[in-house]
């Protein structure tokens, strides 16, 4: 079992930056691929970024490449999402997620069903 708690969301202006954090508890965090998804009002939850258990490999959806960076600190059981050059279309609830069934040291994909544990989310609102 893995418990995930997100923090760091808020209201910012377009062009600003935010860093989201996800604190994980439970066993095997350091051997589990992690990811971030987001869900805007009236839209389906979508993949944002993922990171392998070692942190050596990452994956991003095209709309955030070059602006967002996912990272992790296994000593602190924490995964981060640094978001720069934020846009109004980034407004959403951001969810941290874990993929313990993923085999090998690689990031998870965009399919939400690869991920078994989810946090409650943190709201990010970007005003224009």
Structure, explained:
The chain has about 130 residues and is an all-beta fold. Helices cover about 0% and strands about 50% of the residues. It is built from no helices and eleven strands. It has strands at about 1-5, 10-15, 20-25, 35-40, 45-50, 60, 70-75, 80-85, 90-100, 115-120, 120-125. Strands 2, 4, 5, 6, 9, 10 and 11 form a seven-stranded mixed sheet that branches. A hairpin with a 6-residue loop joins strand 5 and strand 6. It is globular and about 40 Å long.
Q: Globular, elongated, flat, extended or rod-shaped: what is the shape?
A: globular
Estimate what percentage of residues fall within beta strands: over 45%
The average pLDDT score comes to: 96
The helix tally amounts to: 0
Unreliable spans are: none
Derived from helix and strand composition plus strand pairing, the structural class reads mainly beta
Distance between the termini: 40 Å
Please bin the fraction of helical residues. under 10%
Element string (H = helix, E = strand): EEEEEEEEEEE
Largest sheet: 7 strands, mixed
DSSP E strands, number: 11
């Amino acid at each position: 079992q893995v418990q995930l708690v997100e923090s760091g969301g808020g209201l910012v202006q377009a062009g600003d930056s935010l860093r989201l954090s996800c604190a994980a508890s439970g066993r095997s965090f350091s051997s589990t691929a992690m990811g971030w998804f987001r869900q805007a009002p009236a839209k389906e939850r979508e993949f944002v970024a993922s990171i392998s258990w070692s942190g050596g490999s990452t994956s991003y959806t095209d709309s955030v490449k070059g602006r967002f960076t996912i990272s992790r600190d296994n000593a602190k059981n924490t995964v981060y999402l640094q978001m720069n050059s934020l846009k109004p279309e980034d407004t959403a609830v951001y969810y941290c997620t874990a993929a313990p069934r993923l085999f090998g040291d690689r990031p998870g994909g965009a399919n939400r069903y690869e991920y078994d544990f989810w946090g409650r989310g943190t709201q990010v609102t970007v005003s224009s």
